[in-house]
Design goal:
By secondary structure, this protein is mostly beta strands. The chain is about 5% helix and about 60% strand. The strands form eight sheets. It has a 22-stranded antiparallel β-barrel. The chain has a five-stranded mixed beta sheet with strand order 8-13-14-11-12. It is found in: Cell outer membrane.
Length: about 800
Amino acid sequence: MFKFLFSAAVLLLSLSSYAQYSLTGVVRDERTHQALTGATVQLAGTTQVAIADAFGRFGFYKLPAAEYVVTTTFLGYAEASEKVHLTADAEIEIALAETAVLTEAVVVSATRATDKTPTTFTTVGKEKIRQQNFGQDLPILLSWTPSVVTTSDAGSGVGYTGIRIRGSDPTRINVTINGIPYNDSESLGTFWVNIPDAASSAQSIQIQRGVGTSTNGAGAFGASINVQTNTKNDEPYAEVINSFGSFNTRRHTLNFGTGLLNKHWVVDGRVSKILSDGFIDRASADLQSYYFSGGFYGGKTILKFVMFGGKERTYQSWYGVPESRLKNNTEAMFTTAMNEGWNEEQTNNLLNSGTRTFNPYMYKNQVDNYQQNNYQLHFSRQLSSAFTLNTALHYTPGKGYFEEYRYNDKFVNYGLSPVTIGDSVINSADLIRRRWLDNDFYGFTYSLNYDRDNWNVVLGGAWNRYDGDHFGEIIWAQVSTVPSEHRYYFNNGDKRDFNTYLKTNYQVNPQLNVFVDLQYRKILYKATGIENKLNNIAVDEQFDFFNPKAGLTYAVSDNHQLYGSFSVGNREPVRDDFVDNPGRTPKHETLHNLEVGYRSKGKRHTLHVNYYLMDYKNQLVLTGQVNDVGASVRTNVDNSYRMGVEVEGLVKLSDRLQWNANFTLSRNKIANFTEVLYDYGPGFDEYIAVERTYKNTDISFSPNVIAGSSLSFFPFRNAEITWLAKYVGEQFLDNTSNKARSLDAYFVNDLRIGYSWKPGFVKEINFSVLINNILNEEYESNGYTWGYRGGGEEYRENYYFPQAGTNVLGMVAVKF
């Protein structure tokens, strides 16, 4: 490997030896002198484009002596051009002025935070996204940002993936795409696998930690992720990206755009195909996705239609690997098989599988199969120099199923009578079932922006409706008398969500800014029918939430800022809280969030230090309690909190060396937690719920230490070598702080190598290699636990999701 990398470096160095002159510089705000990270700098009449880095710096190299027109653009600022007569290496400073000219920034401006917003956020630009995008799911690309922990069911980052921020699970993370809600309305979860390769069409991604600013859709109860898709590109382009790597992973992407047509029209598109066998046995993924947009850009009007979606077929790998298999303990594996009720074939699979790659599913079509399409129509109009109106219509249909092979399943579970064949009465048999979801989500969003003098005011909101059918069918049974395509349950969920908010930023003086954000949200939720355990569903709930937020930012100087805010967030229970807990109405959850921080940006460094306190009332947690058909039930706990300090910084150690690092130290506690464990008695003929109370116990899946690091070395122009490191502290699988039910701390290191070549016959060719887990750390990033008492013994089963050892992805991207 070393010889290969050294030889490649020598070859690439020879390609860069024809440099003549360089043109470097910095882009700043004309008024505040702040560096404008992400500004686009172009040499007019050429294909040379540079993106300003975290310090606002950019560079062009290997330029022949000539006169150049340097054109600079940045959302929310007037375009600037200046001539440079280049006869030697030169450095320039570009100052951009804020402008009222309508740009696509208004599409997401209502739900995004800025430097004037007293909350905690990280924005990831297009270039950073591209560098890390080898075809893995979007959460994996964000794993290096502060307080983030990610996981992959298949262990390789392709397929079903998850993300936690400050310990908050995906159901507590609000996700919007161009300001449109993306969370599933009933579960409040986010399924990135339904829009694979979404990162290839992302202009920027902002993560707000804590309650954040008011947004649309589900309440941000731990964080929010705001994705903006591609913005207008004036020049035509095409790009072909191919990635190949371990576990037979392949990614093929075609991006294209017309550039500006007839001074007003732009069309962009993308099609993608991602395939992987996965690290876990049979954890394959076959993912297809697309993105198309067409926009009209007038002087004061933007009308843009966006459509994107995907179809996924993933082999199920969500069961996890039992601890007995990880430890290769044969006796414990037999106990696991007994506790799970597995037959001989399933037990042999457990005993003979790979230690870390076990998958209990063996049926060839044990797959999740789902297709989703997203349609958005955005309209923005500059009504005057102070007022801008934004509206959007959206519609998302989705339909799919997951298929399961069931061994010796009881007919009564499907509403079927026993089958008599001759003298035999058969009460159970092997069968195959599909559980379907067929849903529609539609609505509109709006915002009216006022920006004049010292005032910036946004009146915004949304109305959305979700209509989802849940049903299950038997498609085959071992006993032929069982009717094919027998529908054994059907229910419908109908959820309507309305919110309106008023956000105000008032600049009291050059140093002090006051922020007030008031939101009202109303939810109507109905669910009727029969659920999959054949219980009746009858939910008819209404929630009215008031979510106020207020704070201050104070500019100590041009490059130093203090901020503080206090916010209240409320969140409704999810579908399972009602369905699995019939006859008992769960309470909604409330979060009081304090954020206090310091931001600094110098010529060679940025620093962000933040203290947070997230105090919960009636947080819903798993206690081990189950209902009468064995489904897990969540219950409210009175008092719990998350408290921590986050530090994020970037330092330019030299012209060739740059270090970006972050760490989080936190405490995550429940004041009083009651675990429920069921005792079946000495002879397994009883059923008694035993309660155990714990005080000041740790919240599950909430590590006290999270740290990330990105050390980049630039050996020569257009080349980059980056060492990525991530440390995640110990996590508990339940809320009892028991080390026997925990995930060990892990420290994972990746190496990314990239080179950009501009040969002349195409605009650019990018070569990249990503070596994941280069030190071959054996670790598990997620898991779950369950247990019971019986026969005088206590049994516990822990399940884990191992991640892949050292694996490689290579990528070639050609721009035309």
